[in-house]
Each structure stands twice: as structure tokens, then as C-alpha cells.
Amino acid sequence: MFNKITLIGIGLIGSSIALAARQKNLAKHIAISTRSEKTLQEAKNLNLGDSYYSDVKQAVKNADLIILCTPVGVFENIMKTIAPSIKQGAIISDVGSVKAHVQKVISPLLPKGVHFVPAHPMAGTEYSGPSAGFPSLFEGRWCMLTPSENQSKMAIKKLSDFWRELGSQVEIMDAEHHDLIVAITSHVPHLIAYNIVGTASELETVSKSEVIKYSAGGFRDFTRIAASDPVMWRDVFLTNRDAVLDMLGRFLGDLDKLKIAVEKGDGAALEELFTRTRAIRKSIIEAGQETSDADFGRHV
Amino acid sequence: MFNKITLIGIGLIGSSIALAARQKNLAKHIAISTRSEKTLQEAKNLNLGDSYYSDVKQAVKNADLIILCTPVGVFENIMKTIAPSIKQGAIISDVGSVKAHVQKVISPLLPKGVHFVPAHPMAGTEYSGPSAGFPSLFEGRWCMLTPSENQSKMAIKKLSDFWRELGSQVEIMDAEHHDLIVAITSHVPHLIAYNIVGTASELETVSKSEVIKYSAGGFRDFTRIAASDPVMWRDVFLTNRDAVLDMLGRFLGDLDKLKIAVEKGDGAALEELFTRTRAIRKSIIEAGQETSDADFGRHV
Question: Which of A144, A182, A219, A232 is most worth mutating to test chain B (most B CB atoms within 10 A of its CB)?
Fold first, then answer.
């Protein structure tokens, strides 16, 4: 499908792309670049690619597809560095969790004749680094592409095909709308998970060891996404601020009403909400985005 | 261990106790009682016990151990009904998620010579009803007992042994302290999970079908506990109000600070929290209360 793919950044998502692209035979050559010598060595030991570079300018030479797989905050600097070395006709893409910001910082730095097709695979685990990747990560998950309106249809089709080959379903949408969707389906959930884990670990009336011991009543579920990569998530909240604050405001408005229902002992209001929310999980299972196994099929 | 155990209420927890007690041979006779004829028939079809009663007074006759496995809100009425039929020397227990309230409503109704040892197994799944139970549910989980200070040591020991035989670790503590612990490790997590699922399903800017489709970015995790039994959870919030509002207040105070960090773009504060919260999951895994498998070992 491609002669040469360059992956810049080789964490959970980058390493999973490398493994899946190799398995599906989507590239003759996979080049891997990362700033950290230690991470580069780790990627080499895991045999994730065909060539390894700490100099990102060297890594992108002659690549047909370049995918930015670093935290979003360094995209601008990387583009400034690699722009002169990108081949005419190449496709640049990324896997960032925010899209309007990415469009804003990358578009002005694009060399002429280079296609920019931003992407966001809705997939991941709580682990990070090159050893966290696995080739089936994207299977059955959605990948959202947010190309600008004047982008080459051919480049969009090629990247769509690439993600379908990796096992994903592909949807093309507007960057701003993407950012609203992920604010409610991913960013605010992470924010409140990080927050409750923070609250629980700093109480005086309940000790941290009690929180750990008795976590199976619900709390432990939240610790999974609150164990996600700190730098990646810092950058998400720095670059999708408006959509996150919008959705967080709605969450807080609803929580205020729920708090009043608890204060007043309004059992009917509580039961009504708790019955309504039950249905949505069923729909997610039916849509193939969740397991029907009890407790996620968790064994412990 | 017991001649006759009576389970009042035969949902997820009641049916799991029945199956585990049978498997471990902890009772010569297991009697099952529930108000709903349909549920009673279901329990019968599943062969969960030795005898089945819609009349709870009949069910408790000659029982050595009676366990209330219904939502907490009906405990008081059940006790009023069964009190005259309980055998001298019997142990009454329960599996309710709140303990100070249970102590308060049951203690005045206890016949003389009957031992009351309240219990709360920290275990469950998002499914409910008699068919949701399985005998290994309590294995490795904690069961908290909150007997009053003047309770018979023998009865406490007998119930502790029973829960240990079911596979649990047992801890004895004060009812008020129990209620604070579960407010932060279970009740507030459920409240915010119910709340975000409610918020997400009522947006105008993002459709419900988009929320379902793109739920794998974190949201779907919350739908699991937000699919828990509505009546059971209504009763939890009606009967552990003060501890829940205390912990919810702390959560909201912290969330307000986090919101300000997002508004101001304070990357250092975000990264500091996100790094700190990562450690606690590791401790929960080390304590044997969580799997180290990526994504809960979820297969979908």
C-alpha cells in the first residue's frame, strides 16, 4: 500500500500501528523516529520497524506516509523541523485526540504538494510506551478523519483504506464536531476519573490503604483511565479547552440537580435517571463497542 | 456450618450466596424467599435452593442464619414481618451497601436472643436478578462486618467464618466509618457514572448515536456501573445521604480546581495530578483487587 511509512513517536498507538501494518503487509519499509534514545532502543529491541532515527529529518525522507504519534503539544515543532524534508505527494497524518488545534498549527507549515489528513483512532489502553502496543488494538474501533474541505480525495481515500486495513471503521467529519464528540466521550470522562482518584487519595477521614482495599465497589474502574499517559492527557486538555469546558459545564449542571435530589431524598428522580442510563450500555454492546461479559470479563 | 440458611431476596448477591454456599456445603438446607412470584419461579428453575417461599414468615422458620439480600429500603418492613417467626439464637445478617441506617432501623426490631451481624460484601457486577449470580463472585473480595459493640463474639465469628468460606477476606469495623469508605469507593463513583451517562445522552450538539459509536475513548467504562440495579442504588443514596454529600463535596471542590487549571492552561498542574493518580492503580493491582491485564482484559 505504501513504499515507506514513517512513524514519529512510538508509544502505545505508534507501536500498534507498526505491528498491525507489518502484519497486514501495508508498507515495504517502516521507519521509526523518537527523540528519546532509550525509547528508540526499546523499539529496536522489539523489532517494531525497519529503520530507526533519533534525527526526525532523516526519518521522513522519501516517506509516502508520515504519521505523528507523539503527544499533540510537540506537533508544531516537529512540523517546523521536518517540513523541508517531506517528499512531494506524501501524506501527513496524525493520531492526536484533538483535531481543530492540530489543523490550526499544522496547516500553515505544510509544504505545497503535501497532503494533510488528520486522523484519530478511538482506541487505547491504560498502558503506554513501545512495549504496550499490539496489532489488534484498532480492530472494530472507529477512526475519525478530519481533512479540510479542499483536501485531495485521493489522499483521503488512501488513508481511509489504510485504517480499514488496520481493522477500523472510518468516519470523515468536521474537526470542530470531532472535538465536541471526544470532549464528552473521552476527555471529560478522563477528567472526572483523574479527579475522583485524586480526591480519594487525599482524604483524612478514609485512608489511602482503605481506598485501595475496598476499591472493588466501583472506584477501581476509574483508576484504569486515570492511569493513562500524563503528558498525552495534559496536552489534550491544553488544546481542546473550549469543548472540554462546554461539556464539563453540562456535566456539572446535571450533577448539581442530582445532588439536590440526594439532599431532598427524591427517590423518584434518582430511580428515573438510574433506569434511563441502564439502556445506553445495551446500545453500546449492540453497536459492537463493548463486551456483554459481566464486569468487562475481568479476572482477578 | 448451618442447618438452615434463609435468603430473603434472590438477586445477584442472594443467588451468588446460594450457589457458593451450596458448592462449599455450608448449609444442610437453603430456603429462598422473594415477594415476586416471577422471581421465585426463576430461582426455582435455576435450582438455587431447597425450598421457596413467597411468604417470608414461613421462610425464616427454624433458620440459623437469615440474610437480607433485598434493596435496603425494604429492610424495616421485612424485619417487622419476620421478627415473631425468628428462632432464638439465630443470626440475622444482610448484604446492604449502607450500614449505619441498617443498624438504626433493624436494631429496635430485633427479638431478644437473636444476633444481628450486619455485613457488606464489596462485590458485584452490572447484572441483576437470580440468573446473574455465580459462586465465585466473592472470591478475593472484602466483606465488611459492622456489628454493634455488645454483639455476641460467637455470632460475629460464625458469620466471619461463613464469608471466609465463600472466599472473602473479612474486616470488622464501625458502621459510620464503613459508610464513609463506601461513599468514596463506591457511592460517589456510581453517582458520577450515572451522571455522565445522563449528560451524554441528552446533548443537542452531539447525538446519542455518536456517543454510542465513539464510546471506546473512555465513556463506555462508566456505562458499566451506570447499568447497575436502579432500585438498589436509589435506596443507597436515600440511606447514606450525609456521607455521600460529604464525599461529593470534596470531589466537587477538587473538580473546581481542576477546571480552573484547564481554563488557565496550567499544564504543570494537570501533569502533576495525572502522574500522581497513575500510582494508585498499581497499588490496587498489587493488593489483588484489580487485574493487570490491559483494558480489564476486555474482549470486544
Answer: A219
Tell me which residue has cell 476509574.
A222
- Report d(CA A15, CA A38) in Å as an integer: 15
Written out in words, the top-level CATH class of the domain with range B2-173 is alpha beta
Q: Where are the domains of chain A?
A: 2-173, 177-265
Confidence band of A15 (pLDDT split at 50, 70, 90):
very high
- B260 and chain A in contact, CB less than 8 A: no
Residue ranges of E strands in chain B: 2-8, 27-33, 51-53, 65-68, 91-94, 115-116, 119-121, 142-145, 169-172
CB burial of residue B217 (10 Å; 0-12, 13-18, 19+): buried
Q: Which residues of B touch A200 (CB under 8 A)?
A: 184-185, 280
Angle between helices B175-182 and B241-264 (to 10 degrees): 30
Its ipTM equals 0.95
Q: What is the pTM of this model?
A: 0.96
Within 8 A of A185 by CB-CB distance, chain B residues are 200, 206, 210-211, 214-215, 217-219
Helix (H, G, I), strand (E, B) or coil at A296: helix
Q: Which among B236, B265, B152 has a CA at the least distance from the CA of A241?
A: B265
The CATH number that domain A177-265 falls under is 1.10.3660.10
Give me the residues of A, 120-179, that contact B with CB < 8 A: 122-127, 132, 134, 140-142, 144, 171, 177
